[in-house]
Amino acid sequence: MSFTEIEAPSLSLEQDKAVSEHSIPLGVEFVEPRTGFYCKLCGLFYTNEDTAKTTHCRSTVHYRNLQKYLSQLAENGLSSVLTEPSVAH
Ligand SMILES: [Zn+2]
Fold it and tell me: What structural domains does the chain harbor?
């Protein structure tokens, strides 16, 4: 049964042929390096540091989300401080 052993490498050679047929790289936009700048507040991902930290952090969307986050943080902090002693009693 040496036939099956020969078939396997020939298959991979065909695959290599199919890949090398295109000299121009296609669908490059689907290749994403998983490095960038992610805003946890807005759930937005930026590849450029300047765009993320300067342009995005000045945008109204980010400002609103930041205000919402800070108000929620303050509410949660206040409520936990207020309820904790009463629960302990
Ligand atoms: Zn943001």
Answer: 34-89 (3.30.160)
